[in-house]
Design brief:
The protein is about 50% helix and about 20% strand. By secondary structure, the chain is an alpha+beta fold. The chain binds adenosine-5'-diphosphate and magnesium ion. Magnesium ion binds next to α9.
Length: about 375
């Protein structure tokens, strides 16, 4: 192919590319721009060619762009693509994911070439999704709270009253020995149902988290695993403890609760431990077991199709808090769930959570 023909084809490719591409000199003056890039900024190609990138980047993005250009010139590695907020001519914004390279002439850097993807719509959709997810999670917690209180305040109270009434009937009237045995057995059943109702109520919303906070609630749920599944458990806390917002504490509690429930249900473990580290900027929680492990699907998103909502729910809760959740598991070698959440969810009135007087007795709806 002749050189000229090759250049024309490359120009066609550049001009018709759906992704925004532009080149600017070392001072930021745009010297080459394709239609997609110009359109995203709400300008024509001619208008875009007259300006400096500082007029199309939001202030925080300009700072990042300058930093990236500096680091590229120093041959430093940068994380790409990186996010940039573009200011449109009409004042609106677009979000680009950008990859930047240096262009050289005679071995000297002369310009920066940028290839971007307009992710404005995708980002908006993700934000909407997060918003709905947060609302759904809140609604679910509210509903659990309502049912938990209903069970505790109404159903359980009625069962207690029925037990008392039966007891006074047994004591008041004359019954044969066998009748009495039957009636006491019925009384025993009422007590059993009462205990189950209380356990459901506690499981739905342990009031300990509302009254005493995350750590006592985690002590309670870790102990419960020991009692219920006979698995040796331990809870270790390091770093300077602090309280998080009520929502953050509840979400973290739900993550650990589900991880422990999975250990009880699936792991066949003999040991499980929960480690919590309060760092300066984030809180790290790991939940380990020495159980049978499992084969992780390539994508956690596949699990809900099989009716499995636990792991994906844990990950979504971590993301709602601006954090991450990683799962490390090998068949036969146990499982570790690692959660990292930034501490900016801290309330203004950060209270010290003194471990010594919190205890971990269940204070369900007292
Ligand atoms: N700690 C664990 N040990 C072994 N297998 C686990 C563990 N946690 C999760 N799993 C596996 O991952 C699957 C998905 O878990 P999850 O999403 O919580 O759904 P569910 O608990 O309803 O099955 C489980 O069915 C189980 O096979
Ligand atoms: Mg589960």
């Amino acid at each position: 192919m002749a050189n000229n023909e090759m250049i024309n084809r490359l120009r066609d490719l550049f001009e018709s590319a759906l992704d925004p591409i532009w080149v600017h000199d070392l001072d930021g003056n745009i010297i080459l721009v394709n239609k997609a890039a110009a359109e995203c900024t709400g300008r024509t190609i001619e208008e875009t060619l007259k300006i400096n990138v500082k007029y199309i980047l939001a202030p925080e993005s300009l700072k990042l762009a300058q930093d990236i250009r500096y680091r590229l010139l120093q041959y430093e590695a940068i994380d790409t693509p990186y996010e940039q907020k573009i200011v449109r001519k009409d004042g609106g914004h677009a979000i680009f994911m950008v990859r930047t390279n240096i262009l050289y002439s005679d071995g000297k850097p002369v310009a920066f070439q940028n290839i971007a993807r307009d992710v404005t719509e995708t980002k908006r959709m993700m934000e909407n999704l997060h918003y709905y997810l947060r609302q759904i999670t809140r609604a679910q917690e509210d509903e659990r709270n309502r049912i938990s209180h209903e069970l505790h305040d109404s159903t359980a109270q009625k069962l207690i009253a029925s037990g008392h009434r039966l007891e006074s009937i047994i004591n008041k009237y004359k019954f044969s020995r066998q009748e009495k045995t039957e009636l006491w057995s019925l009384h025993g059943q009422i007590r059993e149902i009462l205990n189950e109702v209380r356990a459901y109520s506690r499981e739905l919303r342990p009031s300990i988290i509302d009254h005493l906070g995350l750590i006592p609630a985690l002590e309670w749920v870790t102990d419960a695993l020991k009692t219920e599944y006979k698995i040796e458990t331990s809870l270790k806390i390091s770093g300077e403890r602090c309280r998080l917002t009520q929502e953050a504490e509840l979400l973290l509690f739900r993550i650990v609760q589900e991880a422990l429930r999975n250990i009880g249900k699936h792991a066949h473990a003999t040991f499980a431990d929960v480690n919590i580290t309060f760092g300066e900027k984030d809180i790290n929680i790991t939940i380990n077991d020495n159980g049978k492990g499992f084969n992780m699907p390539d994508n956690l998103g596949e699990l809900p199709y099989g009716g499995k909502l636990g792991l994906i729910g844990m990950q979504e809760r971590a993301q709602l808090l601006g954090g991450t959740l990683n799962i490390y598991t090998t068949p036969g070698r146990g499982t570790t769930i690692a959660v990292k959440v930034p501490l900016y969810t801290l309330p203004d009135d950060k209270r010290d959570n003194d471990s010594d007087d919190t205890g971990h007795q269940d204070s369900q709806h007292k």
